[in-house]
Amino acid sequence: MLIANKLQIMSTVKLDKLKREEHLRRRDKMRKDLPVLTKEEVRRYRLPLHQALFLELEEQNLLSSLAFLHQMIDYQKYMRRTHGPNSKLWAKPRLVRSPAILKLLVEGLKAAEYAHLSRDIALECDHFLNLGVYFCFGDSDWWWLGEQVFNHCINISRNYHGDGQRRFATAEYLLGKYLFENKREIEPAIEVLRKARMLSNGFPWTASKYLHFTQKTVFVESCLVLHKALLAQAKILEKYDMETAIILCAKARRRSYDACDHEGEAIALMQQGDCEMCFEQTSNAAESYYKVLLMHIKANRIKETCEARVRLIQAYLKLGNWKESYHHLQQLLQCAERNNMPYYIGQSYRYMGEYYLNHGNPDQATPLLIKALNAFHEIGDISNREQTKNFAAVSAGQELMPKYINFILKCGEDTDEGLNYMEKLIRWKDTRDVAWSEAQPSTESLACVPTAEPDDSVLDVVDSIISTHKVVISEPEIGRRAAHQEDSTDLILNPSKIKASPTNEDILLIDDGEKDQNGSDTDLDIIYDGPRRLTVPFGSLTMQQTLL
């Protein structure tokens, strides 16, 4: 209340004077709070940042840093112009428009050049290594910049021997690691890593201070990355130069041995075995797989042990070494069941089924293949499931084959039963009526196993079919068949079509090449045109015999 009264009593002139003084006090306080900018800071604010940095470096007489900065900006312009506006490189941020990256780069260049001017080459290399690691193992937009920094560091450290060339070897290793892991340039990475390995051999140098995480020695790390790069290169060469791929796998194994990486040795040896299998060096592949198996058993690696057994079984099956393959199949099944590994359970059942199928025991093979099929179906392995399904179908078909051969042989008997079987055969041909039941026993004796030469009894059966049961095929039936032919003379069967397979001479069917409604081969046909002229093919297994 008193203040209000005083203001009312105070003259207008005095009031204005007090307001001006208060305004001046505020202005002085705000001026004191403002930061004091240097000439360089004002220049950076007024000019494009890269131009301001050019002027700063020139004024400070840091000509090497100025030249390097110019080179990097010009290099990016050249790369953008070369690849064009539709490239990924064009979409990457530009150096001249990235203030944070420009400032970081210039500060590092300044520190490195100051160290160089004070003749501290080691410190100069350290600054470049830190810059290179930051850009090469950071944001992918600036990988290209880090690569150029590493190359510049290598050129400087190559001629510096004050540290025994530790920094030179470290720079080579870091560049090779970047080229392989980030840029995926395998061949240049291999060359650089080989240099790093040779330079660091026998020295306890490490790159942990630059990467900021624990590392083994530069020699060991170079060997480990080189091992991966050699295997990657071998994988590429597998497509057209398998022999060189095998050599690279052997080199990769030696690099793992140098680094005391026994798991890496096993991986390289496994890939070498794969290459040898593709190169038809199956014996060498089996030896490689066996060594891998021993390594994994010694290290108690369950999954890898199962995988090595699968590869070894494949090699033994290809070599025909049935005893060893069956032994390892049993071992694989036991290991997979003990450790609840459904994939390898399926693989063991599959290869056991193939084993029995190769030994002519489809009755034992089919149940095993069905178990494998179910195992692959449960884990959703479509590729192996479809392959196993095909093997199971073949095995089931071979189980039925003795029944089918028996059926054909019975058609030739000169009895009422033979005539009955002949009628069933024709009905099966015309209307697909079931000709035999699954309850009928199969003939699984050696009589059903193909021999080297056609058996006379088979030819007798054919002759009996022609001479005894020719009345079964009526003339209207022959006319219906002839309607499908352009020339009736085609009904006269060509004896030259009756061919013999070296392993399936006793398997006999009759076919005229006619297709059913679905377009598939009817597999069995009888066309009679004369007492002794007949074509008898059986799928792809046929017999060639002149029936005269």
UniProtKB/TrEMBL annotation:
Looking up Gene3D superfamilies in the UniProt record yields:
Tetratricopeptide repeat domain (1.25.40.10)
Which SUPFAM superfamilies does the entry mention? TPR-like
Sorted UniProt keywords: Cytoplasm, Repeat, TPR repeat
Q: Which GO terms describe its biological process?
A: cilium movement
| Annotated compartments | Cytoplasm
Q: Does the keyword Ubl conjugation apply?
A: no
Keyword Glycosyltransferase assigned to the entry: answer is no
The Gene Ontology CC terms held by the record are: cilium; cytoplasm
The superkingdom of the source organism is: Eukaryota
Q: What is its main location?
A: cytoplasm
Record-linked InterPro entries: Bac_ResReg_Asp_Phosphatase, TPR-like_helical_dom_sf, TPR_rpt
Question: What does this chain do?
Answer: Axonemal protein which is implicated in axonemal and/or peri-axonemal structure assembly and regulates flagellum assembly and beating and therefore sperm motility.
- Put simply, this protein is called Tetratricopeptide repeat protein 29
Q: From which organism does this entry originate?
A: Popillia japonica (Japanese beetle)
